[in-house]
Amino acid sequence: MLIDLTGRTALVTGSTQGIGWSIAAGLARAGARVAVNGRRRESVQAAIARLREETGSEAFVAAPGDVTGDDGAREVATAAPDVDILVNNLGVFGPTPALEITEDEWRRYFEVNVLTAVRMIRACLPGMKDRSWGRILNIASDSAVVIPAEMIHYGMSKTALLGVTRGFAKDAAGTGVTVNSVIAGPTHTGGVEDFVYELVGRDLPWDEAQRKFMIEHRPQSLLQRLIEPEEIANMAVYLSSPLASATTGGALRVDGGYVDSILP
């Protein structure tokens, strides 16, 4: 299967590390020009240097800015105009007992994980419609469907993101623009390593800590291991391509079989 994104411009929010970084790398390998986003210019430039070394591509653009606010989002949109592929990857997560989640935290999770995606879609979708082609991907989570007891505020925000995706897909109906969610399962990133150690303790080697985490906290996983970021990126690159032209309004799973359902 040949995926060719030559001539397309992509913007991946929160792409200086983890899943976002891997998606940026995958899109560049497919030929896209990729705008790399993070809050600090220094981290963006460092990420671009690593991406160029990893992919052999020079087609990266710095798009620093805090997209959780209107001013930062405008800065990013200015640095990356005429976006053909928008990947809303930025998000926050962390464990907190249900009754200890403050109202400020409920609001913060909704603001960062939901409204930031809405803000960037509003910035990019009109241009995509005008050009009669576009791809919007919202990186969701298995937690949207299987709400984790240790972070229900995170699960709530990802459930809302699925609704946002479906709604904007309807808004884009018939325009040549597709809007989809990627339901990522438990994924091996630096932030997740910290999360795992918070739950199982830091006295175990990583391989043992990972196995203990999956057995005790994610026993539904059929993969029985954490997913690598590149595996999420593979789905994102496909959905960003012309090959996925008939897939829109969907929630596509890269969850290692974690969600106990035979439907997407």
Description:
The protein has helices at 18-29, 41-55, 70-79, 103-131, 152-171, 190-200, 206-217, 229-239; strands spanning 9-12, 33-36, 60-62, 85-88, 134-141, 177-184, 251-254. By secondary structure, the chain is α/β, with parallel strands linked by helices. Helix 1 packs across helix 2 and helix 4 (103-131) runs parallel beside helix 5. The longest helix is centred in the middle third of the chain and has 29 residues, at 103-131.
Distinctive features:
264 residues, alpha/beta, 7-stranded parallel sheet, 7 strands
| Residues in β-strands, percent | 5-15%
**Shape estimate:** globular
Main sheet?
Answer: 7 strands, parallel
Tell me the span between the first and last alpha carbons.
22 Å
H/E element order: EHEHEHEHEHEHHHE
Q: Helical segment tally?
A: 8
Helix share bin: 40-55%
Number of strands: 7
Class computed from helices, strands and strand pairing: alpha/beta
Strand order of the largest sheet: 3-2-1-4-5-6-7
What oligomerization state is this entry in?
A: single chain
Calculate Rg over CA atoms. 18 Å
Task: Report the mean per-residue pLDDT as an integer.
Answer: 96
Q: Provide the low-confidence segments as ranges.
A: none
How is this fold's topology laid out?
Layout: E1 9-12, H1 18-29, E2 33-36, H2 41-55, E3 60-62, H3 70-79, E4 85-88, H4 103-131, E5 134-141, H5 152-171, E6 177-184, H6 190-200, H7 206-217, H8 229-239, E7 251-254
Parallel strand pairs: 1-2, 1-4, 2-3, 4-5, 5-6, 6-7
Helix pairs in contact: 1-2, 1-8, 3-4, 4-5, 6-7
